[in-house]
Write a structure and sequence with these properties.
By secondary structure, this protein is an all-alpha fold. It is built from 4 helices and no strands.
Length: 104
């Protein structure tokens, strides 16, 4: 009986590991997927991409202002809500007069 329980637990663990790997492959976006990067957007796509990028910040208006400004110049918005700026070098390297990041 104990062996049967151990075998069932191992099988369940194996199935959950395989399921996790399959789900990771089918993620909504991949950083290396080619959907992001310099020139990957048209300027008409900037408002929707910036809405996505700024959707979880408490400073929505300034985020949208600077995101759209950066998007129109760089034609790129990084994936996710925060970080991942290395995907868009122009977006990442644009700084304020004080040296801080210009793009959210």
């Amino acid at each position: 009986m104990a062996k049967l329980v151990c075998v069932l637990l191992l099988a369940l663990l194996g199935i959950s590991m395989i399921t996790t790997q399959v789900m990771a492959k089918d993620a909504a976006y991949h950083l290396d997927g080619g959907n992001y990067g310099p020139g990957s957007l048209k300027s008409s796509q900037c408002p929707s991409e910036c809405s996505r990028r700024c959707s979880q910040t408490q400073y929505h208006k300034p985020c949208m202002l600077f995101c759209q400004k950066c998007c129109k110049t760089c034609l790129c918005v990084p994936p996710g809500y925060y970080g991942n700026k290395s995907v868009c070098p122009c977006y990442n390297n644009w700084k304020t007069k004080r040296g801080g990041p210009k793009c959210p």
